[in-house]
Amino acid sequence: MQRLPSSLPIALVVAVMAFAPALAATVSGAGFDTERFVPVEELKPGDRCVGRTVFSGTAIEEFEVEILGIVRGSAPGSDLIIARAFGETLERTGILQGMSGSPVYLDGRLVGAMSSTWAYTKEPIGGITPIAEMLPALDAMDDETGELRRGSGGFGRLLFPEGEFASSRIGWLTAASGARQSPEGLAAGSSLGSYEGRALTPIDVPLVVSGGGDRFLAQVEEILGGAGVTVVRGSGAGQIDAVSELEPGSAVGVQFVSGDVSWTAIGTVTHREGNDIVAFGHPLFNAGRVETPMVGAFVHTLLPLQTVSQKFASGGATVGTFRQDRRRMVAGRIGPVPDMMPLRVRIDEEGYGSSVFEFEVMRMPPYSSLFAGLAASGAVSQAVFSAGRSSAELRLRIQTGDNVVEYATTFFTADLPLRAGGELSALMDFVFENSFETREISSAELTVDVFGERRQTFIERVEIDRPIYHPGDEVVVSVTLRDWEGARTTRTVTLAIPSSVGEDPLLLRVGGADSYHEWEAERLGAGLRPRNFEQHLALIQRSKPGNAVVAQLVSGRPGLSLHGGELRDVPGKAALVLGSSATSGAVDLVEYSLVDQTEFTTDREAQGYHELVLVVREDD
Predict the structure, then answer these.
(1) Quick check: helix, strand or coil at residue 184?
(2) Which fold has domain 1-131+201-336?
(3) Chain segment 394-412, per-residue pLDDT in tens
(4) Which end of the chain offers a freer environment for a tag, N or C, measured as fewer CB atoms within 10 Å?
């Protein structure tokens, strides 16, 4: 299991320089209504303001704020307002996670949003994002010119237990397709500045999660470590009576997953114009134009902590759609709700029955694949009696356009919930991450069969039926498998030697899926690269599930791959002509030519590799 890079936080980092010169011009211009909003240049230390937020339930409460200073040019085109909060609650807790976006007013005019703080502060001191830097999101609310972010973040591998991704079926597919080989962070952050020697950070966002055990939530915290979220347990979607009429100071949530499980990031509404709102005072993903559910939220209690205290809250019913996720805010519209991706997870555990979960995931690649995988992992951790080292059969079905992607594999894993969720997330990444077409996923289904025994088998011995073969002969191969418990079975397969083969020796390879993937990558090289989306998906059929045993005959003669498809028995002159075109991109040279291939499957994960050299003679 890996974790998100700490330099790439979910709440984009606010760079602060304690003694930065006034380099940035004010954002407020001719369109800035100074009767309702306060320009930064008007503020001065000692100004007494009023803030609004929710400390309990849905009731908005006021607290006092004193302006301590203004850091001009804290980031290109940005200023930062430093302030101290007052009040019995905040004196006890300090600035709270979940307060991101809490509006601050000077004589009834909006100054901006509480958005950052210092850890371990003895006083409730934090940073305010000027409202002038948040309002532009309202003008962009109906802007359809910006593309919704597409492609994959490569997040699937983050969920895999340590060392399991590279040897998995989906790991080979990812590499063979040329997809991203390292995870992309949730947001492109920058290093923090300091104020009085302390690191100033955006207020972490409470990520409220229902579904999954305590161990799983701790793992999610580790995976998302450094990403600007704090994982907390909460109620399922629709299980609490949250406010539906949002106003400045109301608790609000960005919902990633809803249904039988719920994943919601909690913040505060800063400003409302009609049905449009701006919130948080910092981004979630800094993703630009988005479409994510907006929900009301309910604060159960406050948790005073030594580092940064937090609101313990849960998301409620969907009330609208967040449409903008920008550098200094999240913005959306109350009303129509976004379309979500249905995801069904079924877990059948040997001896313990079945569990089925139905939920929906936001349609926002690449983050939809990450949260779909995490939510599925949580469902598995909640349903499975023993979620540690386990053997499982996994089946996935993804609908994308007119294509139905079906994928199955068998594995033994150190952590079943994360492995199952990682397989789903990585396969979604595989569909998203292609160089040919922008693809949406209409729906996804995950089925996991869990076994109480360690289901692994090893290729112990490979034998052939004779020492010498002739062109046109068949090769009868006996494969002896030894199970983890020691039981042995023998399977027989037949391979054909074409009559066109000369006296060159042939190499017989017999191996599990892991070995097959390794030798095919070595043999075909660039010839594996897909040239269109159909070939991209066809890589799934070329790959093998974990319970496959593959027997392959190859010749030492070089071969050819045309448009991603391997050519067999190419006549010599034709091979020379096509080979000379290998630099065109349509034709690739293949190191070893495939002569014949067959396979069989077992009821468990197969491992091991054997190879033999076959002697071929044209006459006796």
Answers:
(1) coil
(2) Thrombin, subunit H (2.40.10)
(3) 999 999 989 999 999 999 9
(4) C
